[in-house]
Design a protein that fits this description.
By secondary structure, the chain is mainly α. It has one domain. The chain contains six helices and two strands, in the order αββααααα. A two-stranded antiparallel sheet has the order 1-2. Strand 1 and strand 2 form a beta hairpin. Helix 2 packs antiparallel against helix 4, helix 3 packs parallel to helix 6 and helix 5 crosses helix 6. It is globular and about 35 Å long.
């Protein structure tokens, strides 16, 4: 089985400080700035390298909450989200503008920034869970709208 080599560990500055988030990590699309899938995968790599796990990931993913279409919450995994991103990456390198996955990208970036600012030791699952919960509150999911 071939395993893709991960890129070297990235510094927080590689993902910016959060003040110009969309400008630095996005490409212009037809509706404005769009977050890149490549950077999302790199964020996942970086976070996993320092101990971010599925226990924290599902808490920042939009599928944690039921919707009109999805009647029950789901505990999304990093592996499933990574596979989803890789599928998108084969077609394009950006998420749809203002999509739920752009919000996941922003939450991942938030977690990494807060983790670095806090100076926490690696592999602190409880810290990552708390940061993921905070990210979900600070960057809430899009509200579903009725099509009409």
């Amino acid at each position: 089985m071939l395993v893709a080599a991960r890129k070297p560990f990235r510094q927080l500055s590689d993902f910016d400080s959060g003040t110009q988030t969309r400008e630095k990590s996005a490409v212009y699309g037809t509706k404005g700035l769009q977050m890149t899938v490549t950077e999302t995968l790199e964020l996942l790599d970086t976070l996993e390298d320092i101990g971010f796990t599925d226990d924290a990931f599902w808490r920042l993913h939009h599928k944690r909450e039921p919707t009109a279409k999805r009647k029950q919450s789901q505990k999304e995994t990093i592996a499933k989200f990574r596979a989803y991103c890789e599928g998108i990456q084969r077609r394009t390198d950006s998420f749809k503008y203002n999509s739920e996955n752009e919000h996941v990208h922003e939450r991942l970036k938030f977690v990494l920034r807060k983790y670095r600012e806090g100076g926490y030791a690696p592999r602190q699952t409880n810290i990552f869970i708390a940061l993921a919960e905070e990210a979900f509150l600070k960057i809430p999911p899009r509200k579903e709208t009725k099509q009409g």
